[in-house]
Amino acid sequence: MNFQSHRPEGYKGAGDRQLPKISKDLSSYLTLARRIFKTILGHFSQQELQEFSSALVEFAEDLHNDLGMWRSLENYNREFFATPLPLVLRSDDEASLEGINPYRLRHFMWVMYPHINIDFIPSPDDPDFCELAEQVSAFLRDKFQNVPADSGVRMFLEQPNEFGWQVKRKLVWMGTHSYLFRYCFAKYLNERELKPIIPVIDDFICQAATEWSGLGVIDILAAVLNITEAERADLRSWYERHLAVYKVVSIAEPMTEVVNVFNDRPYRVRTDEHTGLFKRMKYVYGSLVPWRGDWYWSGG
């Protein structure tokens, strides 16, 4: 796997250049560890170990830079289950969750295992599994000690959210490339024998529940972005896209006025450079989502 293939294009932090080497070193480390942890790692091919290593390094990057994805997941878990790490920490457990630690590693690996290799799903409290989490967390803590806390992913996620397409760009990246969701997305495609075309991607990020406590991509992005509560409510409403047939009634770039033919409701849609694709009195079948008082087309 090319480590760079999942990075947000055009954004590089000072620490990014060290991550591929850490991933390569971790893959070598796990290859050696496979001799000791035969039950835990024996089912993994070399390619799967490389995939696993990349995901673990990106997970550590999130914690090292406080990107917010893992923090958001733990916060949702506290709300849902009264513990940040279900099946790893009890609700009354006072164990520290600072930085890269074995508890977080154990929960992450336990959810990730069936995505990397479906032949073996370990118990989260299996002694060998716990020991592996201890060793991998120690390895990553050591490797990240000298990595600058500056990430291209953070730079990307901190870009403006003025327009709906800016938010959607982040949503698509998180759903198809982030360490939390890209394996869920691949499973979504494989189970349905689908190709990663725009409507399929839109369906996944706007409606699929995942193994991460049943959360979807929108849940995590809504918690990560620095936006108002009203904007967060707008974003979370994207789970309920307004799918209908619309009649185009007027065009004044960058806006297009349409009417939902099912209920006669008017929508003011921001179409920007794509305004020329629409013709007055023609019909469009598609989905609309709101952002900051305007509507945007979602998907195909």
Relevant terms:
300 residues; alpha+beta; 5-stranded antiparallel beta sheet; 12 helices; 5 strands
What does this structure look like?
The chain is an alpha+beta fold and 300 residues long. The chain is built from twelve helices and five strands. A five-stranded antiparallel beta sheet has the order 3-2-1-4-5. A hairpin with a 5-residue loop joins strand 2 and strand 3 (266-270). Helix 5 (102-116) packs across helix 6 and helix 8 packs across helix 9 (182-192). The two termini are 29 Å apart.
Q: Please outline the major beta sheet.
A: 5 strands, antiparallel
Number of strands: 5
Distance between the termini: 29 Å
Sheet with the most strands: spatial strand order: 3-2-1-4-5
Percentage of residues assigned to helices = 40-55%
Radius of gyration: 21 Å
Structural class: alpha+beta
Q: State the helix count.
A: 12
Q: Return the average pLDDT rounded to an integer.
A: 95
* Helix and strand sequence: HHHHHHHHHHHHEEEEE
Q: Uncertain runs with pLDDT below 50, 5 residues or more?
A: none
Shape: elongated
Instruction: Work out the strand percent.
Output: 5-15%
